[in-house]
Design a protein that fits this description.
2 copies of one chain form a homodimer. The first copy, chain A, is α/β, with parallel strands linked by helices and 293 residues long. Chain A has 9 helices and 14 strands. In chain A, the strands form 3 sheets. Chain A has a 6-stranded mixed beta sheet, sandwiched between helices. In chain A, α3 packs across α9. Chain A starts with a strand and ends with a helix. At the A-B interface, β12, α4, α6 and α7 of A face β12, α4, α6 and α7 of B. Chains A, B: This is MFS transporter. Chains A, B: It holds the Pfam family DGOK. Chains A, B: It comes from Sphingomonas glacialis.
Chain lengths: 293, 293
């Protein structure tokens, strides 16, 4: 068995994954729980990391994600685009000197403003591991979907859409809410939603979904898939995807399949990547770049 | 003083206005309160109307608006486009025979589905009174903004956008919520939002508004006006407005001014109409068309 080198924590808003990583990059052990940033009290992060070390081993820890936000452990100032592995390493925030560091997020300040925290490790990992080329368009669907344009192996620019949050807002709080209780599936109703998205009438198409059910013209069980198709279709169509180009998608299988269908509908080619493998490749590349370990 | 002819009630979801109307169309008296449909228990509508008669006079009552929805007194089946005053009169639902009637809403079933309840009285009133021509595009901004195309004095087709509801969802429930507490004003920030709407990137532009404030690039007090401009600008740009054409806006002054600015930004000409006067003209035309009174 390889020697334990460091612990990587992908510490998000609601979930957390910790990996014990060997000097050759192999994952020795993984922990996963729902101790996301929002369920850790201020001042308790040191203790949380100590508990993880007790379980995985007494080695340095690298944390990525919302743990570096104002709601997290400490705020790690963003690196700016264009940003590669080196830029992240330069801006590491050592919360326990030599022992525990937080990886900064990335900000875009030129032109349109945007921010990410955690996704930078995945997209850079996808490129350094060769899963995606150094010049590519990557997509990370989710509550806030990220579209990242890589150039020469660096994050050149990116755009975040509140696609997943919008679906949740509509389902939990809008007049359409009662119509959106069914599961979303990548079937004909979802495809109809994608088609609807080409009209570019999001605000009125959403109202029309309710009217069609009220008027008995459509099955309410199709509405969630249609609205998901409308939102994801709008998200994908808002991006500049070269004709016949490739979009590398980092997502779990269910959401990834929806985005792959939406990308295909635009004439581009979706390629699904393993987001956990990309994260591990990225954080290992960061670890390897840190001096003096 | 003219003789009292009938009582008109504009009975919406959260508010109610009752008008005592003379045989010559003049308004003798007006009542206004917050006894909207949602605050009247099922079975209490008869009593509510009796109370209004006690105050305004013992004459026939015509009700319009959400009082004719499933959440109202009884569900009044929609008239279908194209619909004029005659179509509404044909489908009146007499909840108290010869005494109290509910005016149906209008549904669009050909092509895209859509529904309205209450707005039909306003738009037809605007045309029968000569406030707007018989072939015109009318806009009724609000929680659900209506865009109504009139042809030969009838409602030919229409489109509803959930613009106002979307702003409320974002302010009350989204990650952007804390950034949207300021009042919306039709100033430079609102104009910037209108400009942003021309990009057609609603889902990502919304996220960008938060990022710009987080990165210290923009004053948080501007965000509500910018987001309002982005939403209203998207709403207006989704409509087919002929180049240099006219949009007749039926709204209160504050919201009307925002839509007028958005219409102007597209190169069209806004004309503000008095929505209460339009409602009165419409319901009086309906009254005059009913046989046998």
């Amino acid at each position: 068995m390889s020697e334990l080198a460091f612990i990587a924590i992908d510490w998000g808003t609601t979930n957390r994954r910790a990996y014990a990583i060997a000097s050759d990059g192999a994952v020795i052990q993984t922990l996963r729980d729902d101790k996301g940033v929002l369920s850790v009290a201020a001042g308790s992060f040191v203790g949380e990391v100590a508990k993880i070390r007790k379980r995985l081993g007494d080695v340095p820890v690298l944390c990525a994600g919302m743990v570096g936000s104002t709601r997290g452990w400490v705020e790690a100032p963003y690196a700016q685009c264009p940003a590669g592995i080196d830029a992240l390493v330069e801006r590491l925030v050592w919360v326990e000197p030599g022992r525990t560091a937080i990886i900064p997020g990335v900000a875009q300040l030129h032109g349109r403003c945007d921010v990410m925290r955690g996704e930078e490790v995945q997209v850079l990992g996808a490129v350094v591991s060769g899963m995606a080329p150094g010049d590519a368009l990557l997509c990370q669907p989710g509550t806030h979907s990220k579209w990242v344009r890589m150039k020469h192996g660096q994050i050149a620019d990116f755009r975040t859409a509140m696609t997943g949050e919008m679906f949740a807002l509509l389902r939990n709080h809008s007049l359409l809410g009662d119509f959106l209780k069914a599961d979303v599936v990548a079937g004909p109703a979802f495809q109809e939603g994608l088609e609807l998205a080409t009209d570019n009438h999001l605000l009125s198409d959403l109202f029309g979904e309710r009217a069609a059910v009220v008027l008995g013209q459509r099955d309410v069980d199709d509405t969630a898939s249609r609205v998901s198709g409308l939102l994801i279709g709008s998200d994908v169509r808002d991006q500049v995807i070269a004709a016949g180009g490739t979009v590398y998608i980092l997502a779990d299988q269910a959401l990834g399949a929806l985005y792959a269908a939406a990308v295909t509908a635009t004439g581009a080619r979706p390629v699904m990547l393993d987001s956990h493998a990309a994260f591990l490749a990225g954080i290992t590349a960061i670890w390897d770049t840190i001096d003096g370990h």
